[in-house]
Design brief:
single chain; alpha/beta; 434 Repressor (Amino-terminal Domain); Endonuclease, Chain A; seven-stranded mixed β-sheet; 12 helices; globular; disordered N terminus
Length: about 290
């Protein structure tokens, strides 16, 4: 079957399908836009889901991408009947660096991001050492040299994503649980550096960082991490993929959940960071000699 998306799997967002077909046809966004009379920026917004894909636009793009008729009709129907389902967005089928770049494209199209992480430091706040530890855990394979190269490429892509924090025309709301500070995913010295990085970024005028302390009475349990971009889409983290919905009900529901948790979070975070930096510093001390 002439389709890079064949097989039994959940329906994906229209933008992700268009992106894959464009890559399959070896076209740049500008080249595809020239074929259909759209700007490269619009092609990017459609692929990332920053704007809803109109069925008429999808039909034009499907024709320009020379999709098989059945595939084209399927994608057009998805655009016509987009709903509030969470569907596969960035799947395990892509390598980690490609996934990082896809996340970066989606983030770049948003003006305001709300990010909750109950287990690890959010990607946009990670140091390269912390990111390497996280990404290495997800890299599978028998060839250790190839795996290390893949992780390095993914770390570089993640660090490039982090540059968006310096865009003063965007706002970032980060929310983590205290458990995140306690989860040691790398060497204690690297954990200390990671907490320093959080302290630094929290001073940016466009960054709001809150920590939900252990003794906080929660309005809702933070079962999983998620990102709300503007009022346009929400993505939910899984181990090997991300699910995304542009449905208004779903986006509104996740935004309400974020705001209710943000309301009980500590924004004066220095004392908490001090406590955990001291904790990791103690781990660096030599063990006392037993007598």
């Amino acid at each position: 079957m002439d389709s890079p998306d064949s097989g039994d799997r959940p329906a994906e967002p229209v933008g992700a399908i268009l992106f894959r077909w464009r890559k399959r046809r070896k076209l740049t966004g500008q080249q595809l836009g020239d074929r259909v009379g759209m700007s490269q920026a619009k092609i990017s917004r459609l692929e990332t889901g920053a704007v809803a894909a109109e069925p008429s636009d999808v039909r034009l793009l499907a024709e320009a991408l020379d999709m098989p008729a059945a595939e084209a009709e399927r994608v057009i129907e998805l655009a016509e009947h987009a709903d509030d389902r969470l569907t596969d967005w960035v799947s395990a089928g892509r390598d980690q660096a490609d996934r990082q770049r896809e996340y970066g494209r989606a983030e770049a199209a948003a003006k305001e991001l709300r990010i909750l992480q109950p287990a690890v430091i959010p990607g946009l706040l990670q140091t390269s050492e912390y990111a390497r530890a996280i990404l290495s855990a997800h890299e599978q394979g028998d060839d250790s040299r190839r795996a290390d190269s893949a992780v390095t490429e993914a770390v570089i892509a993640r660090m490039q994503r982090n540059q968006i924090l310096h865009s003063r025309d965007r706002d970032f709301h980060f929310l983590i649980t205290e458990q995140v500070l306690r989860n040691q995913v790398c060497h204690p010295a690297e954990m200390i550096s990671q907490l320093d990085r959080m302290r630094q970024v929290a001073t940016f005028p466009n960054v709001h960082l809150g920590i939900i302390a252990d003794d906080t009475q929660l309005p809702i349990a933070p079962y999983h991490g998620f990102v709300v971009a503007d009022d346009r889409w929400v993505s939910v983290d899984l181990f090997t993929a991300s699910l995304r919905s542009s449905g208004r009900k779903t986006v509104r529901a996740y935004r309400r959940m974020f705001e209710s948790l943000e309301a009980v979070a500590h924004t004066e975070i220095d004392a908490l960071l001090d406590r955990y930096q001291a904790h990791y510093a103690r781990m660096l001390l030599p063990n006392p000699v037993s007598k």
